Every structure is written in C-alpha cells, then in structure tokens.
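Help wanted!
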Amino acid sequence: EAQVTQNPRYLITVTGKKLTVTCSQNMNHEYMSWYRQDPGLGLRQIYYSMNVEVTDKGDVPEGYKVSRKEKRNFPLILESPSPNQTSLYFCASSPLGTTQDNEQFFGPGTRLTVL
Amino acid sequence: QQQVKQSPQSLIVQKGGISIINCAYENTAFDYFPWYQQFPGKGPALLIAIRPDVSEKKEGRFTISFNKSAKQFSLHIMDSQPGDSATYFCAASMLGGANNLFFGTGTRLTVIP
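Answered by r_m:
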C-alpha cells in the first residue's frame, strides 16, 4: 500500500530534550515536506526537500532541523524543544515534475506536547 | 504573513444544503489551487484542484469556482452530507515552486442531519 508513515504518533516530552520524528514514504517520491498544524493558523511549512541531500527552509524553520540521506526518509529533529513547538506535525511527499498536479500525500500526523 | 486567506473559520450546514468556503490570494504567480480535506485524526488528502485557465471544475458534488481577476476561488459542496464533516484547506502553489503549497487557515465544516 502506498503510504507515508510517521513515528511516533504521539509524544510528550520536556523542554530541552532532543527528539526525532521519523517520516518514511514508499512511493519513490522526490519531494518531501514537514508541516505543523496549529488552530487558526492552518498548515505551515517547516522544511522541505526536493531530493537526497537537498533541503531548504519553509515558512517556520526556527528550532527544527531535517536531513535527507535516503530518498524514502525525511526525519524532523528538534534539538532543544520548547513549549511553543507543541503542535500537530505532518510529513508529506509527492513526485517532483514539470506538471502542477503533483498531489501531496500526507502522513497520519504526530501530536507533540512539550512541557 | 498568510499568503492564502480562507473564510469562514467554521461552518454549520443542514444535510442537503450547500456548503461554500472562500479563499483569496495576492500572489499572481500562483497557478495551481488545490483543496484538501482532513478528517479528525487523519492527514489532509487532496479533494479537488484547479488551474487558472478554467473558471470552474466539478467532481461529483464538489465544485471549485475560480475568479482570476478577483484572485479568489471557492469550494462548493452540493447536497452536503454528514460524511462531509471535516476540515477543508485551500492552498496555492506556483509552477517552478518546488511543489511548495501555501495553505489557508482551514474551515471546519459540520453537516447536521
């Protein structure tokens, strides 16, 4: 089954304790992206990647890191989480081509609480 | 700065009624406008999308209306059903924009029986 998986689905942590949220896709997509979803703010892009070893900042990159060592994986790293990073996080992937109709496929989400 | 403005924030519609969600944008470089549907506990999923070379696109009960001169687009859900209750996000992207989507703030739709 074609899908984007994220782990963990739920995470409660404390301020300053480094954490990683994993994202993996099995569709051989070049493009992957991380979003955070907050009430009243919609989905805001954190980082994206157009291929292996190619990453770039989105709209809200502060406090986050990413890496893209393999095509299928795109982990999100919070080196020193703070309470304002409490949010619902989504990973997404899509093929990268010249057409515009590149549907983004979203993972199930990771609900993170930073105390 | 929100590049795509969406309204209303929430919407309650009777079963069988028409649900209308509106979005507006400023960046004239945008040329792809998808709508995503999100059910509770799930990730968003593409519902329907339009390019600016047409003014309307219909798929079943879902229709996008696009007004290029006004830089506005809207989603119409005809014969709304309780199963349509979800959060809807409009979005926009630009050709050559690395697939990056700029999302609206979302509309929570509730269809009451």
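OP: Thanks! One thing I noticed: The two ends of chain A are 36 Å apart (CA to CA).
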